């Protein structure tokens, strides 16, 4: 008798495909609407309040849609040049972290895995801290994100080289190597923090490590937009492959999936998106862990829906978290990474306690 997971993850009859299409459209429609609403509210809310109607007209105008101009110069400047770039960066970062987390959880067959487990976040943190500690930022404002991205790429390449050199194809070995490299990089970061030359340098390092979206511009959107959008599209193509890989390597191979090559491709795409996101936002935890977990409980384990739904869910979650970080303690602004931890940690604990065994299929 076939397992229930075999039946759920296989493409079924015409009726089954129709049911999946309806569920896909309904879920994606609701999440897309929630994300658009979050963008609208986040663009309107702040120390300088802008009416929702005015904000909507500015957003429609930005999309080149015909609309009656109702905004003044001050409101236009606040929405278009200050808030909207920050909101879009937040959405892109949230989408990248959440879809990467969903893909990694499927790849490792473990709902407690997030992108940082393979060294991406720690590598980016080490690169950024090096840029701040050694003063590379004096050579240009882009040295910090470039150093962070380079650190993320270097960490992933190092882990993959060690994995291949170990001649152990087990995905568990890769996870353990990632945990080990994370510990090593964290130690190096702590050494640089302890050796900071002055208080300003220390504050800059701590500020970046907490994760934030302050002072993000359209240049940041242009920097991370292409790799994250392209990565999301490409990783969604592997939804069916991830479904089959959940059933075991042998069954996936028997279904025509090149398991090893698929693993490398998914790891590369997840690392590219995570590295791009962390390079401009700093370390933001729990998005790649909690959002896929919640979406899986609502939409089910089918990665053809789980991956794109996680991207939209992550974008919406981080945009809302950023609004909370700006508004909850005015005039003090919290780091969005701190808010994500405050929201994500209790939510994740409650989800774990509600289910004694988290089901991947």
Automatic annotation (TrEMBL):
Origin superkingdom: Bacteria
TM spans (from-to): 24-50, 84-104, 116-136, 142-162, 174-194, 223-243, 264-293, 305-325, 332-353
InterPro entries documented for this protein: ABC_BtuC-like, ABC_transptr_permease_BtuC
Membrane topology annotation: Multi-pass membrane protein
Location within or outside the cell: Cell membrane
Keyword Transcription regulation: no
UniProt keyword list: Cell membrane, Membrane, Transmembrane, Transmembrane helix, Transport
PANTHER family in alphabetical order: ABC TRANSPORTER PERMEASE PROTEIN MJ0876-RELATED (PTHR30472:SF25), FERRIC ENTEROBACTIN TRANSPORT SYSTEM PERMEASE PROTEIN (PTHR30472)
Family label: Belongs to the binding-protein-dependent transport system permease family. FecCD subfamily.
Name under which the protein is recorded: FecCD family ABC transporter permease
Organism: Paenibacillus residui
Source species taxonomy: Bacteria, Bacillati, Bacillota, Bacilli, Bacillales
């Amino acid at each position: 008798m076939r397992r229930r997971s075999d039946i759920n993850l296989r493409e079924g009859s015409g009726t089954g495909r129709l049911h999946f299409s309806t569920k896909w459209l309904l879920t994606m429609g609701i999440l897309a609407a929630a994300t658009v609403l979050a963008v609208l509210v986040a663009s309107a809310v702040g120390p300088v309040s802008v009416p929702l109607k005015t904000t909507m007209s500015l957003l429609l105008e930005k999309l080149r849609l015909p609309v009656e101009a109702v905004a003044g110069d001050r409101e236009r400047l606040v929405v278009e040049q200050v808030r909207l770039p920050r909101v879009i960066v937040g959405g892109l970062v949230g989408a990248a972290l959440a879809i990467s987390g969903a893909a990694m959880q499927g790849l490792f067959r473990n709902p407690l895995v997030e992108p940082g487990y393979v060294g991406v976040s720690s590598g980016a943190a080490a690169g950024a801290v090096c840029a701040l500690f050694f003063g590379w930022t004096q050579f240009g404002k882009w040295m910090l994100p470039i150093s962070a991205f380079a650190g993320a790429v270097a960490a992933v390449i190092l882990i993959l080289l060690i994995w291949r050199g170990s001649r152990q194809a087990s995905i568990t070995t890769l996870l353990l190597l990632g945990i080990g490299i994370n510990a090593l990089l964290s130690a190096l970061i702590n050494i640089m923090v302890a050796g900071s030359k002055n208080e300003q340098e220390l504050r800059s390092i701590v500020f970046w490590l907490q994760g934030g979206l302050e002072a993000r511009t359209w240049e940041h959107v242009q920097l991370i937009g292409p790799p994250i959008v392209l990565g999301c599209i490409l990783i969604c193509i592997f939804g069916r492959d991830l479904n089959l890989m959940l059933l075991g390597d042998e069954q996936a191979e028997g279904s025509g999936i090149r398991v090893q090559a698929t693993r490398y491709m998914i790891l590369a795409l997840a690392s590219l998106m995570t590295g791009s996101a962390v390079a401009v936002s700093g370390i933001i935890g729990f998005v790649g862990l909690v959002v896929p977990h919640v979406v899986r409980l609502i939409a089910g384990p089918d990665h053809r829906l789980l991956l794109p739904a996680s991207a939209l869910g992550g974008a919406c979650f981080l945009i809302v978290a950023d609004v909370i970080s700006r508004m909850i303690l005015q005039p003090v602004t919290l780091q969005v990474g701190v808010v994500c931890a405050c929201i994500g940690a209790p939510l994740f604990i409650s989800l774990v306690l509600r289910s004694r065994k988290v089901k991947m299929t």
